[in-house]
Amino acid sequence: KIASMDVEGAQRTTPTKRKRQEESSSKDDALSKNRKIENEPLAPIDDDKDIDMVQLEDVAVDSFEEEIFVDGTELVDENDEEMWENKVWKPEEHPLGEGEKLDYDSSAYDMIHFMTVDWPCLSCDIIRDNLGTRRSRYPHTAYVVAGSQADTAENNRILLMKVSDLYRTRHDSGSSDSEENSFDLDDDPILEYKSIPHSQGGINKIRSMPQHPHIVATWCENSNVYIYNLEPYLNALDTPPRRRLQKNPKPDYTFKAHPAEGWSLSWSNIIAGRLISGDCSKNIYINNPVEGGAWATDYVPFIGHSASVEDLRWSPSEGDVFASCSVDKSIKLWDARESKNFVVSIDNAHSSDVNVIDWNERKNFLLASGGDDGSMKVWDLRDITEPLYTFGFHKKPITSIEWCPSEPSMISVSSEDDSVTIWDLSLKSEETEFPTQLLFIHRGQQYIKEAHWHKQIEGVLVTTAYDGFNVFKPSNI
């Protein structure tokens, strides 16, 4: 069950747990330390088709339930939700049985849609578009780029996706949706995509350049970082191209200095085209843009960590400052104008590997981190002696963490416990069953790898996981 928590005016929404029996399909149980996925393909994509309808589950509840009487006694229909107590599902207290699968409560969402692709994607990014900022009117349109982790190198793809007609989700029986707003409810979204071969290998991380979103960088499992210009393919999602698109485009730039593969990759928001990458051999390199649309690499690495560099983030306000985190349990700050050594270190930031970090773009003195220990922490960089906040709600490693672009106190966290949580740190802490800062819990996916806020559509997130993508907006955000 998707569990939602609404902390507004002391009101809490905690949807009902519902289990649905289905035949379970055999899937690999384990992920490697570096969070790769090896499995059989999901529903395949036909590369010859550019338009496909996203199939949604029919979650409508019949408005009429037949009453059944036996010997004068009415039997209660077990599907009658009014007979069940609303409470947050806790997997540690009520684990799913064999063949059971979580279903969602539509009243917990303003919008939720699902997509499956040929192979699972470890990483995705939301592409900036020209449709306007702070959008709230339905239906929505979103552009997403993702990188696959296929069974063989030649089967890997970069997927450019345009998802349109993202309508609001119609609530189950008892909905308060008025007839006058019914025009923006429940219609099948349309998925248009371009599939670009990435035969060099699986894609560990993929990122779109903020200033020029058609420029995409991939961190490949073969230890190389590639930069692609995908402008013709991105434009073709909106306008049919006059010429046939190249089936197997070559990268515009290939960076081969890393001695091992990695997962950390970040474009600068200040200096267009500046790209930083870190590997499992503790090296950090910077690629700088040069005239003519090319890049030049500084082949002297930044070395300060004693183990794998897990994540990197450029400062949102200073073009030469960046942060890194590592398996060595530390978070470090660097200044590219200085020597190749770090300038600040938060040692033992977590009790084990520090997996992910994110820098608050609105409050640039705040840095969030997530660790293998399942904890999420927020650091005030003006005083790093102790974390400003520490939450241990998740019991398995954190896989992504991201500040909300429109609300500087709000943050999303994904975990290997198959959930995404949304927090509002402006709320006061009180002694309750759940942390009062916890706004929402999204479940229903397996092995969630990343969760990203859409910077132009308020309150909308995109997640990528073993079993595909979710696009959703919580009802209380």
Q: Any overview of this molecule?
A:
The structure is a single chain. The protein has 477 residues and is mainly β. Helix content is 1%, strand content 37%. The protein has one helix at residues 231-236, and strands at 19-21, 51-53, 68-70, 73-75, 100-102, 109-115, 121-126, 140-148, 157-166, 190-197, 203-208, 215-220, 225-229, 253-255, 264-267, 275-278, 284-290, 294-302, 309-314, 321-326, 331-335, 344-346, 354-359, 366-371, 376-380, 389-391, 398-403, 410-415, 419-424, 438-442, 450-453, 461-465, 468-474. Strands 2-10-9-8-7 form a five-stranded antiparallel beta sheet. Strands 6-33-32-31 form a four-stranded antiparallel beta sheet, with no helix packed on it. Strands 11-12-13-14 form a four-stranded antiparallel beta sheet, with no helix packed on it. The chain is globular, with a radius of gyration of 23 Å.
Task: Give the helix/strand layout.
Layout: E1 19-21, E2 51-53, E3 68-70, E4 73-75, E5 100-102, E6 109-115, E7 121-126, E8 140-148, E9 157-166, E10 190-197, E11 203-208, E12 215-220, E13 225-229, H1 231-236, E14 253-255, E15 264-267, E16 275-278, E17 284-290, E18 294-302, E19 309-314, E20 321-326, E21 331-335, E22 344-346, E23 354-359, E24 366-371, E25 376-380, E26 389-391, E27 398-403, E28 410-415, E29 419-424, E30 438-442, E31 450-453, E32 461-465, E33 468-474
Antiparallel strand pairs: 1-5, 2-10, 3-4, 6-33, 7-8, 8-9, 9-10, 11-12, 12-13, 13-14, 15-16, 16-17, 17-18, 19-20, 20-21, 21-22, 23-24, 24-25, 25-26, 27-28, 28-29, 29-30, 31-32, 32-33
